[in-house]
């Protein structure tokens, strides 16, 4: 059974993106946040555009398999729409730990052949890798692109985020891509104060520095412009935001 009275970070994000798959409890928190940090809605769009940019770069590089870890509630354009706009045969797997999110993915995304949705917790990477292999959804002998968009800052230090990335990295073939976004501890203090309020819910957050975020991508070659605010991956004329969301794309040599 789904608990519609429990706050969901995925549904808050859906609201910020203008989606309709959210409830009053999610909208209440989002509105509280926006009343003190209205640019969070803009930043959510920048982050979504970064995801699209990363998928385009991977598809242009010839990658034909994609894993969207912590996919969240579908919001067009989704990974398979972007990838298949470049290569119609691209295979995409959406993975989330929230059964409600997965049910949305199954209903809205998983009808085309080669597109699947799985229930899986990023904190258990080997379970996810086993599912992908056992169900023949991903061929790890060929390059894969993984997106981890606004996920790692929900993984606490004692849940070993670096080991999670390493588990996926070690299974990837050369030429694979890893794209991440992460909330930065160098954001304006007043914004961090607003977002720290979510620690009263199940959606606890751990913002980290640029150096810490870069360290997660050890073993990958960082693509230019490196570990920078997501805006810098998009266009040179986009405004800064008090909340800094870092974006980075690594390629496995």
SSE topology:
Blueprint: H1 9-16, H2 24-36, H3 39-60, E1 65-69, H4 79-86, E2 91-96, H5 99-108, E3 115-119, H6 125-134, E4 145-148, H7 161-171, E5 177-183, H8 189-196, H9 210-216, E6 221-222, E7 228-229, E8 245-251
Parallel strand pairs: 1-2, 1-4, 2-3, 4-5
Antiparallel strand pairs: 5-8, 6-8, 7-8
Helix pairs in contact: 1-2, 3-4
Describe the structure.
By secondary structure, this protein is α/β, with parallel strands linked by helices. The chain has one domain (9-251): 3-Layer(aba) Sandwich (Rossmann fold). Helices cover 38% and strands 15% of the residues. The chain has nine helices and eight strands. Strands 1, 2, 3, 4, 5, 6, 7 and 8 form an eight-stranded mixed sheet that branches. The chain is globular and about 45 Å long. The protein starts with 8 loop residues before the first helix and ends with a strand.
Short summary of the structure?
This protein has 253 residues and is an alpha/beta fold. 38% of the residues lie in helices and 15% in strands. The protein contains nine helices and eight strands.
- E-strand count: 8
CATH topology: Rossmann fold
What is the top-level CATH class?
Answer: Alpha Beta
Terminal CA distance reads 44 Å
Please work out how many helical segments DSSP would assign: 9
**Corresponding CATH architecture:** 3-Layer(aba) Sandwich
Helix fraction by DSSP (H/I, runs of at least 4): 25-40%
Which key terms come to mind for this protein?
Rossmann fold; 253 residues; eight-stranded mixed beta sheet; alpha/beta; disordered N terminus; 9 helices; 8 strands
């Amino acid at each position: 059974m789904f608990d519609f009275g429990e706050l969901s970070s995925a549904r808050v994000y859906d609201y910020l993106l203008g989606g309709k798959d959210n409830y009053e409890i999610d909208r209440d928190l989002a509105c509280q946040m926006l009343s003190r940090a209205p640019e969070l809605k803009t930043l959510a769009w920048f982050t979504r555009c970064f995801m699209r940019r990363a998928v385009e770069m991977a598809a242009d590089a010839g990658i034909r398999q994609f894993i969207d870890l912590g996919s969240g509630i579908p919001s067009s354009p989704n990974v398979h729409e972007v990838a298949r706009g470049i290569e119609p045969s691209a295979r995409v797997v959406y993975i989330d730990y929230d059964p409600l999110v997965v049910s949305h993915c199954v209903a809205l995304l998983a009808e085309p052949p080669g597109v699947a949705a799985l229930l899986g917790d990023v904190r258990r990477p080997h379970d996810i890798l086993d599912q992908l292999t056992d169900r023949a959804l991903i061929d790890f002998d060929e390059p894969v692109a993984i997106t981890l968009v606004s996920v790692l800052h929900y993984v606490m230090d004692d849940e070993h985020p670096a080991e999670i990335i390493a588990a996926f990295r070690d299974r990837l073939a050369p030429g694979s891509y890893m794209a991440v976004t992460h909330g930065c501890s160098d954001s304006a203090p007043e914004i961090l104060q607003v977002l720290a309020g979510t620690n009263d819910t199940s959606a606890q957050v751990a913002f980290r520095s640029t150096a810490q975020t870069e360290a997660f991508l050890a073993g990958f070659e960082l693509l230019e412009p490196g570990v920078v605010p997501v805006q810098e991956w998009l266009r040179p004329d986009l405004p800064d935001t008090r909340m800094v969301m870092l974006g980075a794309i690594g390629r496995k040599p």
